[in-house]
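Researcher: Here's the sequence for the chain we discussed earlier.
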Amino acid sequence: MALIQKKQKAARRSCRGEKYIDYDDDYGEDRLSELPDEILIPILSLLTLREAVSSGILSQRWRNLWTYISTLNFDPVANKIATKSCFFNPSTAKSRRKYVNWVNNVLAQYKGGHNLEEFGVCFDLARTSPSHVNYWFEYAMSKNIKHLEFNFLKSPIGNPYSDLTNLSRLYFFRILGSRKSCDPAMNLNFMFVGFQSLKSLSLKFINVSCEAIEYFLYNCPLLERLSVHGSSRLYNLRIISPSIMLRHLEIVRCFNIQTIEICDTNLVSFTYSRDSGLRSTMGWPNRIVIKNSPLLVEVLFGAGTLTFAQHMILKLSCFIHQLQILELTLYHHQPETKMSYYMLPILTNLKQLKLIVFLGGIEHCLLGFVAMLKNFPYLETFVLQLERRNEVTPLEKGSRKKPWPSIRYPHEFLKVVKMIGFNDFSVDCDFLMQIIENAIALEKIIIDTSEGHKMGGNWLKRAVAGRTRAEQLKSLVPPNLEFIVL
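Model: Thanks. This is the structure I predict for it:
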């Protein structure tokens, strides 16, 4: 990028009639442009679209190279089409037009062949003319697309359960929402040759029906990864066939789903999450059946509370014995009872556990998560990621619990512990000391304080203090224990 900046500087001085002299000895001969297109184009494909287009300033030969890249990811933030603050607010008609024009202009100039690696659209397009989205989909599928993402975004303002996208008008999305047109037995080409090459499909905040999911599974022979977010039309999901190539399934915030049935598949990982802040049973399927899926070893649940986590894991009783990787997102704005930490089933094959915990008070004890490890006797890696509110409030008087007694359960296999979001709160330090005392085979502890730096304000001060406290803890750990502070 330094070379691009030099070229831009030279161009600006030339326009002003000034002579530009570069005294940098390594500027010299442009040997980079001597490389063949087969090398340069894959390199440009690793950049954002904005960066790839900017590379044209390097030389005349580079000017149109970006039009042959294999990745078209229309991320408005990464490409500086919109700021993060605008990006996560309800989009205006002006910003939508700007985004649509940007995508259409790029596609009009694109000269790549029929082997597009990635195509991604990410913007609030709920009120945009359906013809644009329909055209983008047809364009991507005509290029033998391998990785396709349509993300129409969830507005953070307003009712999160409302229909966020009015997509029934779209020709393409009529296919996704129709019960009649999505019979898996029907071989519908739609001129989309890309179905034969599609490996991953992500549809976020688009109303996708179960029949549409089945259609994609049966008509995309190479599809390995499927992600569906925010669909209100997903009711009864059935994935039953050993011939399906699907390896990774992700269902998030589909609040009307009633049943999930996965049988005779080659699935490796399964993600199911509602909103971590929900206390009700809304968004939980009444029935989950997973059978004859011997490769399924990884499960990620956005559970809400420990009670719901137990409820969901017990629904997987047919295969929980084979689980090796488990991730739970927990809502911990009020303290749990001590018994709730012991109610999870014993998982003897579990090797990796990650807990993402949303905390609502600085006095919420974390020792229950140490006690929980008793249910996973052969666990080797444990990650605790703490997500605190921007304004942390103390516990209400009525919600205060008796302090935890010291935990005395030697864990013989735990080797690596990582704590993300560490601060200088006493509960954070107590958690670490209890881990050190009970994990007799512990080899490494990683303390990550970077989350506070991202949040800024008072949390930045907390992060700095947390890093100082973590450095002080080094003197209290055994000398053979690797202690890393990030």
